Predict the structure of Sulfotransferase.
Amino acid sequence: FQYWCGDLFLQARKTPKHLTFSGTTWTQEIVDMIQHNGDTEKCKRESTYKRHPFLEWFLAEQPAGLELAEAMPSPRTIKTHLPTQLLPPSFWEQNCKIIYVARNAKDNLVSYYHFHRMNKGLPDPGTWEEFVEKFMTGKVLWGSWYDHVKGWWKAKDKHRILYLFYEDMKENPKREIQKIAKFLEKDLSQEVLNKIVHNTSFEVMKENPMANYTKDFQGIMDHSISPFMRKGTVADWKNHFTVAQNEKFDEDYKKKMSDTSLVFRMEL
Ligand SMILES: *[C@@H]1O[C@H](CO)[C@@H](O)[C@H](O)[C@H]1NC(C)=O
Ligand SMILES: *[C@@H]1O[C@H](CO)[C@@H](O)[C@H](O)[C@H]1NC(C)=O
């Protein structure tokens, strides 16, 4: 989930952008590599968190996302998980470029659950059963997944939004990276494109200390419980949902998603 902008709050020619549990860090790395024409040395200048301020993030132990964003020179690339209705109006007014990455609800839920387990800065997720219930009722941080993906899907008809799917990115990363480059108005050579595909693959990113969240949030994130870069696959939900849970989830999903043309692939 991510943003990109001509201006954030203050000065002209500042540029934000964002990403999530649905491929945020992944897309951030892709965008950073595109912006630096595939130069991995430049992309190693700082951790993901420092390269792309997380707009609404505030934990006493870390510099606040907003502070980092305000200190950043233009053009800025900013991360947020905010739903459309909470996005600061200036993002719309300034016609920011926004990249939104959506991931199917079940994998998103699984990823979110493990992220809560390893991140002490977030509320205790409770048991798996309890967390499924919280997710379905939207009682999770950043609110209802259903409203979130639908809200941004609707917004894309009126604003400069590139709406991507995690499943498409897994299926054909090269194609999706090209889409992002086009959206950012960057021409990439085949060589650079291939390099970006390689260096933003799950296996390489997991070992990239600037992207795997081991530099920041020490004492907050416990990678021994569950690494930040956990699996990066599609359909891992099958290893988590019971048959009964899956049926209940599907039934509820149908109702909540009946008013949108948005379609997700739960497996490839
Ligand atoms: C990019 O990939 C190359 C080749 O595998 C590797 O040597 C390098 O460490 C990677 N860079 C980053 C930042 O992951
Ligand atoms: C993060 O990257 C470092 C450096 O490659 C590696 O040693 C470590 O195992 C990675 N950590 C996680 C949790 O993925």
In short: The CA atoms of residues 80 and 87 lie 9 Å apart. The first strand starts at residue 2 and ends at 3. Confidence is low (pLDDT under 50) at residues 1-20.
